[in-house]
Amino acid sequence: MRDAVRAAAGIAGALAVHSLLSRTVSSWTPLFHVFLLVVLFAAQLRGELFGAVMGTFCGLVVDTLSLGVFGIAGLSMTIIGYLAGAVAKRINVLSFFRNFLFLFIMTALDFILWSLLAILLVGQPLAGARSLLARPLLTALVGAVLFSAYRRIQKRHGK
Amino acid sequence: MPLFPREKRSSRIFIALIVFHLVLLSFQVPLGTEPTFVEKAAFAVFTPIQHGVVAVVRFLGRVWRTYFYFHQVQLQNQDMRREIYYLRQENALLRHSLERFQAKEGLRLFFLQTQRSIHIASVISLDPVNYKKAMIIDQGRLAGLAKDMVVLDGAGHLVGRIIEPLSLAEATVQLISDESSGVGVVIQGNKGVGVLAGEGTGLCQLKYILSTAEGISVGDEVLTSGYDRIYPPGLPVGTIISVGRDSALFKTIVVRPFFDFNKLDLVAVIVPPEEAPAGRRLGP
Q1: How close A44 comes to chain B (CA, Å)?
Q2: Looking at the partner chain, which of B25, B57, B261 has a beta carbon nearest the beta carbon of A20?
Q3: Does B13 map to a domain?
Q4: ipTM, 2 decimals?
Q5: Is pLDDT at B81 greater than 90 in this prediction?
C-alpha cells in the first residue's frame, strides 16, 4: 500500500515538474528527463521490481504525452527500471560521483534503447533525437544532486 | 517456504510487464499515430493531474498578484489583456484575408468564413520526447473542441490543429513543425502553392513547388491556402529561410514558422459557429 502511494506521488511529482518546465523553459524539457529520473530513484531505493513497475507507469505517461508509436517509452523505461534496480543492488552507487555515473549510464542506455526501438518500429530515427544527446549529462547531474540532498536529509533524521 | 523465491517472482513480473508492452506495441504499430483505447484511457487519467498542477500554480500566482498587489488594477489589466488577445486574433484574420480577397464577393465569402468563435486555452504540457511536435491544452470536448480545429498563437499565427486523444477537459495539438503534419499553403503574391510539412526540428519543408517557379526568394511569407479543408485560407504560417534546387522536379524550400515555442503559454482555438457553445464571435 505504501509502495502504491509512493509510486503515485512520484508520478504526480514528475507530471508537475514537467508541466512547470513546459510553461517556463520549454526548450529544456527534452534535456531533463524527469520521468526517467523518478524511475531510477525508485529502482535505487526499492529494487528492480519497483523500478520495473515505475518504468511501466512513467513510460505510459511519456507515451501518452508524446506523438509517435504508443509503447516505445514504456518498454524501454521498464527494462531500464529493472536493470537499474538490479545494478544498484549489487554495486554501491551511493557516493555523488558513482551516483552521477550510474544515472548517466542508465539515461544513456534508455536513450539508446528508445532510439533502437524507434528505428525498428517507425523505420527511422525520430527527428530531433540529436538534441537529446545532452539529456544523459543533465539528467544525471540533476539526479545526483537531488539524490545526495535526499541522503543528507535522511542522515539528519537518523534514518 | 514461499511458492516462488523473491528473485524468481521479480523476474516473472518483469517478463509479464515486457509482454504487456509488446502486446501494446503490436496493437499500436498497425495504427501508426492513431490512438488506441489504452492510450485514450491513459490520456484521460494522466492529463488531469497536469491540468490540476497548472490550475494550482495559476491560482497561487493570482492570489499573490490579486491580494498582495493592486486588486482592481490587476483585474482590469487581466480583462484588457484578454480583450487585446481577442482583438489581435480578429485583426490578424481580417488583415491577412483582406489582402487575399479584393473583390466584393470574395470579401463577403471571407466574412462568412470568419464568423467563427475562438476559445483561449492554456498550454499545460509539451511533448516530453520532442517539444516541437505536440502539446496539450486545458480545453477539451466540454468547451466544444473537436478533432481538426485550428490552433493559433497570440498574434494569430498558425500553430497547429487538434488531434486525438481528446478528453473532456484536455486536448492534444499537433504542431505544424511535426513530421507527420501537412498544411496546404501558398507563397504570398501567388508565387506558388504547395504543402508544408514539419521536420521535427522546429523548421518546416515547403514541398511540391516546381523548379520552374520564379520569383520565390528568402523572406517571402507563407500563408495557408485552404485547399486541405482543415486550415482556413489566409492564416500566416511562416517565412522562407532558404530556397534550393536539389531535386530535378521540385525546389527545396525551408520555412521557419512564425510562432515562438517559448511563448506558447496561451493559444486560440478556432471553433466553427455550429460547434461553438460559449466562445466569442469574430467578424461581423
Answers
A1: 15
A2: B57
A3: no
A4: 0.83
A5: no
Which uninterrupted H or E stretch holds A35? Answer: helix A34-46
pTM: 0.78
Inspect the interface and report whether the beta carbons of A121 and B33 lie closer than 8 Å: no
In a domain, B1, yes or no: no
- Which cell numbers in the block locate residue A114? 528508445
Helix and strand element counts for chain A (H, E): 6, 0
Cβ-nearest to B199 among A78, A127, A129: A127
Residue of B nearest to A54 (CA): B17
Contacts of B134 in chain A (CB under 8 A): 66-67
For residue B257, give its domain range. Answer: 36-284
Which residue is listed with cell 552507487?
A93
B158-166/B252-257 β-pairing = unpaired
Cβ separation of B261 and A26 shorter than 8 Å?
A: yes
Gap from A122 CA to chain B (nearest CA, Å) = 8
Does residue B269 form part of some domain?
yes
Q: What is the pLDDT of residues B28-76, one digit of tens each?
A: 777 766 777 888 888 888 888 888 877 887 788 777 766 666 667 777 8
**Ramachandran region, residue B229 (left: φ > 0; alpha: ψ -120 to 50; beta: rest):** left
Q: What confidence tens digit (pLDDT) does each residue in B199-245 have?
A: 888 899 998 888 888 888 898 999 998 888 889 888 899 999 998 87
What integer best gives the mean pLDDT of chain A? 86
Residue B66 belongs to some domain of the structure: yes
| Residue A13 sits at the chain B interface (C-beta within 8 Å) | no
